Amino acid sequence: MQAVSRTALWVASMRATEAARPDRLHDDPLAAAVVASAEQEIPPAPPGAAEFMAIRTRFYDNFLVDSARQVVVLAAGLDARAFRLPWAPDVRLFELDLPELLAFKDEVIATAGVTAACTRVVVPVDLRDDWTAALSAAGFAADQPTAWVAEGLLQYLSEPDKKRLLDTISGLSAPGSRFAFDHMDASADDREAVVDALEKIRSMGAEFVATVDDPAGWLTAHGWTVAVDRIPALAVAYGRPLPDFMDPAAANATALCTAALPA
What does this protein do (predicted)? Predict the structure, then answer.
């Protein structure tokens, strides 16, 4: 599997850890099966990474529970939202990611015997290329409001690729569409805990690129209204304050953003 898939396995292992907690913030029915199916060793998560991932996952879950009837998950990875969230029966959820990753995921799904709670449509693409034709061919309707998710994606894209992705999403979004994404402030590069995590990611062959400090500026120019949340405040809101050993400034460097187009 390619390097980005190794990071997907790493994230799945942290979701499996969360699912085993009695006070879990989410319950991923595929995570343990993904870990068991992995052919290579999955590196252990640095201290605090699993707690961070649980908060981030819950943020996107909450965003999607009140979503449009058309959902596009960019770089869907090995997450199981199509199977674990309480979707309305008419929701169509498009999962976009690399072909080999989605093929591995479908093998795990078949082995686990789980059934999607919505209409799940798999679209094998490389998001650095032009993926709009493949999405349209899969049944995406550009005239319908869409809920877009880019979880843990923008950090791995170059500035030109990020701009291209944003322009594409804006061009495909009908009035009433919504978009959730995250990024890390450039200040995170100065935090020891963040540097350790980034070194772990890079050791798996994936290049992490810190994003700009003004997430709202990316989208407000395109007519979106943007709200920004931070990990420590969300942790308190979810009843899971961050452990004392976590660096509050490092955790606060991650921006979790929601954007909306007027209906």
Answer: Exhibits S-adenosyl-L-methionine-dependent methyltransferase activity.
What are 108-156's pLDDT values in tens digits?
Answer: 999 999 999 999 999 999 998 999 999 999 999 999 999 999 998 888 8
User: DSSP letters of the chain?
Assistant: --HHHHHHHHHHHHHHHHHTSTT-S---TTHHHHHHH-SSPPPPPPTTHHHHHHHHHHHHHHHHHT--SEEEEET-TT--HHHHS---TT-EEEEEE-HHHHHHHHHHHHHHT---SSEEEEEE--TTS--HHHHHHTT--TTS--EEEETT-GGGS-HHHHHHHHHHHHHHPPTT-EEEEEEE-GGGGG-HHHHHHHHHHHHTTPPP----S-HHHHHHTTT-EEEEEEHHHHHHHTT-PPPTTS-HHHHHTEEEEEEE---
| Parallel, antiparallel or unpaired: strands 254-260 and 225-230 | antiparallel
Listed by start position, the domains of the chain span 3-260
Any idea which architecture 3-260 has in CATH? 3-Layer(aba) Sandwich (3.40)
Note the pTM of the prediction, 2 decimals.
0.90
